[in-house]
């Protein structure tokens, strides 16, 4: 595995195979000789960024120990439409039985990586770093965040457990920005940086006066974000979030913020078009 790769949670692969195969691949069992060897190719049917070949290999390893995948594309690599991404060999029946589950992982993850790359390319000339969010498919978060990295983005917090992000509902419960930050610091979690969400320049100034590690500018206009960047003068890290799409992200990055988080990278990425052609060996 390369730097972008991460093993799929085994229970996720187990569930994928269980829901697809169930009590057995009836059609293949009726038509294919168990001793017949097969070979196949995985082909990109569109320009894409590859992600998920390692997961597909794990799927096939669960289906049959004698299936092998020869990768012709690295995770995170751009692939042209019509290119062969990998070659697969093993028992013909196993190649057929594992095909759909393997491709489902590959298509979903390559789709996220491809969408992420389109966003990352737009802001590549700026200082801004593209981030994902927690708006992921239940159970798929580890894999979907891996796909974001493959596409040139970076990961925000994995979950509620590994970072402190004070949002508007936390602030309302605590009675304001300052008491929320004071209470957070009193908790003694010095191992985690503190980020707080603001929705206006007034809230931004309140947060800045308390010097958190990072301030999230939520749904603010580009004009207000530029003003916040000027007021900040490099004192804390700034993240922009809300109303970010491929048409708006360049203007947002031009304000000078450090990070831009985009939920669409994971919640709205279309599956990449990938197919597998299999024939007797």
- CATH topology descriptor of the largest domain: TIM Barrel
Element pattern in H and E? HHEEHEEEHEHEHHEHEHEHEHE
Give the DSSP E fraction (strand runs of 2 or more residues). 15-25%
The proportion of residues forming helix, as a percent range, comes to: 40-55%
Secondary structure: number of strands: 12
What general form does the structure show? Answer: elongated
Largest sheet: 6 strands, parallel
* Poorly predicted sequence stretches spanning 5 or more consecutive residues: none
Counting structural domains, the number is 2
Query: Which structural class should the secondary elements be placed in?
Result: alpha/beta
Q: What is the terminal separation in angstroms?
A: 27 Å
Reading side by side through the largest sheet, how are the strands ordered?
A: 6-11-10-9-8-7
CATH class identity of the largest domain: Alpha Beta
Q: So how many helices?
A: 11
Mean pLDDT: 96
CATH homologous superfamily of the largest domain, by name?
A: Aldolase class I
Radius of gyration over C-alpha positions, nearest whole angstrom: 23 Å
CATH architecture label name of the largest domain: Alpha-Beta Barrel
């Amino acid at each position: 595995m390369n730097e972008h790769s991460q093993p799929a949670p085994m229970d996720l692969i187990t569930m994928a195979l269980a829901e697809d195969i169930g009590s057995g691949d009836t059609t293949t069992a009726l038509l294919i000789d168990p001793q017949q060897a097969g070979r196949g190719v995985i082909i990109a049917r569109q320009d894409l960024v590859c992600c998920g070949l390692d997961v597909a290999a794990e799927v096939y390893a669960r289906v049959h120990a004698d299936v092998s995948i020869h990768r012709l594309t690295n995770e995170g690599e751009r692939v042209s439409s019509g290119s062969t991404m990998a070659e697969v060999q093993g028992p013909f029946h196993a190649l057929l039985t594992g095909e759909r589950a393997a491709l489902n992982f590959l298509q979903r993850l390559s789709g996220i990586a491809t969408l992420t790359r389109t966003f990352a390319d737009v802001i590549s000339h700026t200082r801004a770093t593209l981030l994902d969010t927690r708006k992921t498919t239940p159970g798929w978060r580890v894999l979907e965040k891996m796909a974001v990295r493959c596409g040139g983005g970076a990961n925000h917090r994995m979950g509620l457990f590994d970072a402190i992000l004070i949002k508007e509902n936390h602030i309302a419960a605590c009675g304001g920005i300052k008491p929320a930050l004071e209470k957070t610091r009193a908790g003694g979690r010095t191992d985690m940086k503190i980020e707080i969400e603001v929705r206006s320049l007034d809230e931004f100034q309140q947060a800045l006066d308390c010097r958190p590690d990072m301030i999230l500018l939520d749904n603010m206009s580009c004009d207000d974000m530029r003003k916040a960047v000027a007021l900040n003068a490099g004192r804390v890290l700034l993240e922009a979030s809300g109303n970010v799409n491929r048409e708006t992200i360049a203007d947002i990055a031009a304000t000078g913020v450090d990070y831009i988080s985009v939920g669409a990278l994971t919640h709205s990425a279309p599956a990449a078009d990938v197919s597998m052609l299999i024939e007797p060996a």
